[in-house]
């Protein structure tokens, strides 16, 4: 009998965990020929998330859990679940029920047919605000225009993977992780499952615009060096503009034209200064990521777990 583990990242999800467990468990029990289990990852929750997960584990031996010493973020939660997993097939499923757990049987069917990954891709953004949806769409367009690693628009973390895919993902040891990009970068034969977005069953989203913006920046900078060329391009353009300006100024001086160039010069100086600061900021972002990688700190720290496995 093949085994499947579903990783469930949790951060302050006490309002929805009972609903999640009651909806997903019957689907997992209905799987024929598979022995299933859950790996709940408590990402430093401040509510009763860990208590609820432990109550699941007390009555259900298929419930495993990992609890962090503090909040390290969803990227770290997914990585920890993958590291602690040992099943033939490993999936990732959000606790808020915005993913569609009813797709799990069909996803497993795709893996049995020969695909390496079965992944969900949402076809709408129901339940999201207009600004958030617009920013998400803009991110995919910008990221795919600037990077060599193509990320499908609407691609989600919700997926089930064969063991070899999990091992390939774990072989990438960088500290600054953008899992959507990692999924695309490692490749493998993937079958996509389109589905309509679902509203949260309870509680509120933990993704603020600030967090989403940081996530987008991490995603772009993790998979392209193109922004580092920005200072070069700006330098060339400013050099050409300066040459043209000097040439025009000399011509006008010889023509004895009345020149009042003070305001124009001030604007040029301000523009050039702003562009220089932007360029330095981009370089600084890359240097910060290099610094984080060199420090070699762990992506997460586990406080407690019921998984009997040495890491």
How would you describe this structure in keywords?
311 residues, alpha/beta, 2 domains, eight-stranded mixed β-sheet, 8 strands
Secondary-structure topology with pairs:
Elements: E1 2-10, H1 17-29, E2 34-42, H2 49-59, E3 63-68, H3 74-84, E4 89-92, H4 104-113, E5 117-122, H5 130-146, E6 155-162, H6 163-170, H7 179-186, E7 190-195, H8 209-222, H9 230-254, H10 262-295, E8 302-305
Parallel strand pairs: 1-2, 1-4, 2-3, 5-7
Antiparallel strand pairs: 3-8, 4-6, 5-6
Helix pairs in contact: 5-8, 9-10
Account of the 3D structure:
It is a single chain. By secondary structure, the protein is α/β, with parallel strands linked by helices. It has two domains: 2-206 and 298-305, Alpha-Beta Complex (Spore Coat Polysaccharide Biosynthesis Protein SpsA, Chain A), CATH 3.90.550; 226-295. Helices cover 49% and strands 17% of the residues. It is built from ten helices and eight strands. An eight-stranded mixed beta sheet has the order 7-5-6-4-1-2-3-8, with helices on both faces. Helix 2 (49-59) links the parallel strand 2 (34-42) and strand 3. Helix 5 runs parallel beside helix 8 and helix 9 (230-254) packs antiparallel against helix 10 (262-295). The longest helix has 34 residues, at 262-295. It is elongated. It starts with a strand and ends in a 6-residue tail after the last strand.
């Amino acid at each position: 009998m093949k085994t499947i583990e579903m990783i469930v990242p949790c951060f302050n999800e006490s309002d929805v965990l009972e609903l999640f467990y009651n909806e997903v468990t019957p689907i997992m029990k209905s799987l024929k020929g598979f022995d299933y289990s859950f790996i709940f990852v408590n990402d430093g929750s401040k509510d009763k998330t860990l208590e609820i997960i432990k109550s699941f584990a007390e009555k259900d031996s298929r419930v495993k859990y990992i609890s962090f010493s503090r909040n390290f973020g969803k990227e770290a939660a997914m990585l920890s679940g993958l590291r602690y997993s040992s099943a033939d097939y490993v999936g990732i499923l959000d606790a808020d029920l915005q993913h569609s757990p009813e797709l799990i049987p069909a996803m497993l069917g795709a893996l049995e047919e020969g695909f390496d990954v079965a992944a969900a891709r949402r076809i709408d953004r129901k339940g999201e605000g207009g600004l958030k949806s617009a920013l998400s769409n803009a991110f995919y367009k910008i990221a795919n225009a600037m990077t060599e690693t193509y990320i499908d628009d609407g691609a989600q973390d919700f997926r089930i993977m064969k063991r070899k895919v999990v091992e390939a993902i774990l072989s990438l040891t960088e500290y600054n992780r953008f899992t959507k990009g990692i999924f695309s970068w490692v490749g493998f034969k993937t079958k996509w499952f389109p589905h309509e977005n679902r509203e949260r069953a309870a509680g509120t989203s933990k993704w603020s615009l600030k967090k989403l913006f940081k996530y987008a920046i991490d995603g772009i900078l993790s998979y392209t060096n193109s922004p580092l060329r920005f200072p070069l391009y700006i330098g060339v353009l400013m050099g050409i503009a300066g040459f043209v300006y000097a040439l025009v100024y000399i011509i006008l001086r010889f023509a004895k034209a009345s020149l009042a160039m003070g305001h124009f010069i001030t604007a040029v100086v301000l523009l050039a200064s702003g562009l220089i600061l932007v360029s330095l900021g981009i370089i600084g972002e890359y240097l910060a990521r290099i610094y984080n990688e060199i420090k070699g700190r762990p992506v997460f720290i586990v406080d407690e777990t019921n998984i009997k496995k040495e890491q």
